[in-house]
Every structure is written in structure tokens, then in C-alpha cells.
Write a structure and sequence with these properties.
By secondary structure, the chain is mainly alpha-helical. Helices cover 86% and strands 0% of the residues. The chain has one domain.
């Protein structure tokens, strides 16, 4: 049953990620991926915190965190886009994107946990 929960959550997260990619133009900088990863980090912090706080079932926790958040966030896309920026010699954009993704992601997941505990 847990596999089914992760599968359903992952499908929903992937569709949401595609919708964000369509909604946010990313011609000169991968804004959609940066936004998805920062928001996904906040979401997994909030949802992970709430799952502990409110005693969600293992299946629900897996569906939301592993499935939904895992399907929504895009580390592989982040890696590919980072490499493309480096190959193009866009070092400022490369550094901004990598640092921004890591810093925003860590800050967002921490904020999510703090908010979920209140």
C-alpha cells in the first residue's frame, strides 16, 4: 500500500512541477526550477513537521513527503541546468543559481519545520 501512496503522490507532484514550468518563463535563467525547489523545501519542512506533530499514518507521510514533494522538486533538472550555465560560461548565473538553490532550500525547509511546530 505504501508504494501506491508514493506513486499517487509522485504523479501529483510531477504534474504540479510541469504546471509551474509552464507558468514561469525561464529563458535566460532557470527561475521555475529555483522556485519549485525552494517551495518544495518549504513544503517538505511544513509537511514533515506536521506529520510528526499530528501523528499522520506512514502511508500519508510517504505520499506527501516522498511522493508529492519528491515528484514536485527537481534536483536532476537543477543539476542539468547548472551544467548548462557553466558550459555557456555564465559563471555569475551559475554561482547565483547553485548558491541560491542550496541556501533557499535549506532556509525554506528550516522555516517549514519551525512553522509546523507552532
Amino acid at each position: 500500500m505504501n508504494f501506491l501512496m508514493v506513486f499517487v503522490g509522485g504523479g501529483c507532484g510531477s504534474v504540479l512541477r510541469y504546471a509551474v514550468a509552464l507558468a514561469i518563463p525561464s529563458a535566460s535563467f532557470p527561475w521555475a526550477t529555483l522556485c519549485v525547489n525552494a517551495f518544495g523545501s518549504l513544503a517538505i519542512g511544513l509537511l514533515g513537521g506536521w506529520s510528526s506533530r499530528f501523528g499522520w499514518s506512514e502511508g500519508m507521510r510517504l505520499a506527501i513527503t516522498v511522493g508529492l514533494c519528491g515528484g514536485f522538486t527537481t534536483f536532476s533538472t537543477f543539476s542539468k541546468e547548472s551544467l548548462e550555465l557553466a558550459e555557456a560560461g555564465r559563471w555569475c548565473a551559475f554561482g547565483s543559481y547553485v548558491a541560491g538553490s542550496v541556501i533557499l532550500g535549506l532556509a525554506a525547509v528550516a522555516l517549514g519545520y519551525v512553522l509546523a511546530r507552532q
